[in-house]
Design goal:
Helices cover 29% and strands 17% of the residues. The protein is built from eight helices and 13 strands. The protein has helices at residues 13-22, 45-54, 65-74, 87-91, 95-103, 127-141, 146-151, 167-180; strands at residues 3-6, 31-34, 59-61, 108-111, 114-117, 183-184, 190-191, 206-207, 220-223, 232-234, 237-239, 249-254, 259-264.
Length: 273
C-alpha cells in the first residue's frame, strides 16, 4: 500500500490520469490525498470532481478556495469570474450530487505525523487545535445554516487569530487561513492579498511556515495553493502546488519516503496571476 499526496488539480484531469499511470496507482491498494482546488481554470473540472468522488474511501480531499468559489457560484452567492471554467459542472445532470459531495469535504485532515490542508495555518495553532477549529467550520458547512455562512464568507478581516472570536468572524478567519494563506507578518497577522514568490514580501512578511514560533511544527504539513512558491519539500512542510494549470507540472509525493513523481502539464489558464 502507498499513500500519495497530489497537488492542485484545478480541472486538469488528463495530467492526473498520466500521473496515476506513472505511479501504477491501484485503487484497491493505494490511497490518495488531494490538497484541494479540484476545480477551476483548467479544462475539465467536471471530470476531476467525478473522478475523485468515484474513489470513495480511497481518497481524501480538503476544501480549497476554488472549491468554495464553485459552491458560492452554484448557489447564487458569488458571480462567476472571467477566468472561471465551471460551466460544465453547473450544467451537469449530476451537478447537485457533486456539489453536495464537495460541500461535505473537510477543511483539514490529520493522520499520523501528517496534516493535510489547502493553504496554511496561523502560527498560534497547534495541529490538534487547528483540527478542532476545522471541525467547527465543517459543522457549519454541513449543517442547515451553510448558505448563510457562505453569504458572509468573503473578506480579509479579521486578519489575525484570537481565541475570543465568535460566529462568522471566527469561522471566516479559519477558512481564510486554511484556504488562502501564503504569508504572515511576524506578529501572526495574515496578508491575504499577497500572491508573489518567497523573498518578494513587503515589510516583515514571511511565508506562514517560516515563522519561528509556529506551533504546528509537531506534524509535517502537506499543502498546496501557492503556485508561485512551487514545489517545496523541506523540514515540516510539503508544498506541492507545482502549477499544473499554468503549464508547469502536476506533482505527487509518496508520503512514506517523500519520493516525488511529476508529469508535465500543457497549461490552460493563460498568464499566471
Amino acid at each position: 500500500m502507498a499513500l500519495y499526496a497530489i497537488g492542485d488539480l484545478q480541472g486538469c484531469l488528463d495530467p492526473l490520469r498520466r500521473l496515476l499511470d506513472k505511479v501504477a496507482f491501484d485503487p484497491a491498494r493505494d490511497r490518495l490525498w488531494f490538497v484541494g482546488d479540484l476545480v477551476n481554470r483548467g479544462p475539465d473540472s467536471l471530470g476531476c470532481l467525478r473522478f475523485v468522488k468515484s474513489l470513495g474511501e480511497g481518497a481524501v480531499t480538503v476544501l480549497g478556495n476554488h472549491d468554495l468559489h464553485l459552491l458560492c457560484v452554484a448557489h447564487g452567492i458569488e458571480k462567476p469570474r472571467h477566468r472561471d471554467t465551471l460551466d460544465a459542472v453547473l450544467a451537469a445532470p449530476d451537478a447537485a450530487e457533486l456539489l453536495e459531495w464537495l460541500r461535505l469535504r473537510p477543511l483539514m485532515h490529520v493522520e499520523g505525523a501528517f496534516a493535510l490542508v489547502h493553504a496554511g495555518l496561523v502560527p498560534e495553532w497547534t495541529v490538534p487545535r487547528a483540527r478542532e477549529l476545522a471541525a467547527e467550520v465543517e459543522a457549519v458547512l454541513q449543517g442547515e445554516g451553510w448558505r448563510g455562512f457562505l453569504q458572509k464568507l468573503y473578506g480579509n478581516q479579521p486578519d489575525r487569530w484570537r481565541e475570543d472570536l465568535q460566529g462568522v468572524d471566527r469561522w471566516r478567519t479559519v477558512v481564510n487561513a486554511m484556504t488562502r494563506l501564503r504569508v504572515c507578518a511576524k506578529d501572526g497577522r495574515m496578508d491575504l492579498a499577497y500572491k508573489g514568490e518567497p523573498g518578494e514580501e513587503a515589510g516583515d512578511r514571511v511565508p506562514w511556515f517560516a515563522l519561528p514560533h509556529r506551533q504546528s511544527s509537531s506534524h509535517t504539513i502537506v499543502c498546496g495553493h501557492w503556485s508561485a512558491l512551487g514545489l517545496r519539500v523541506e523540514g515540516g512542510v510539503i508544498s506541492i502546488d507545482s502549477g499544473c494549470v499554468w503549464g508547469r507540472a502536476l506533482t505527487a509525493v509518496r508520503l512514506a519516503d517523500r519520493h516525488l513523481i511529476q508529469v508535465r502539464c500543457p497549461g490552460s489558464a493563460g498568464p499566471e496571476a
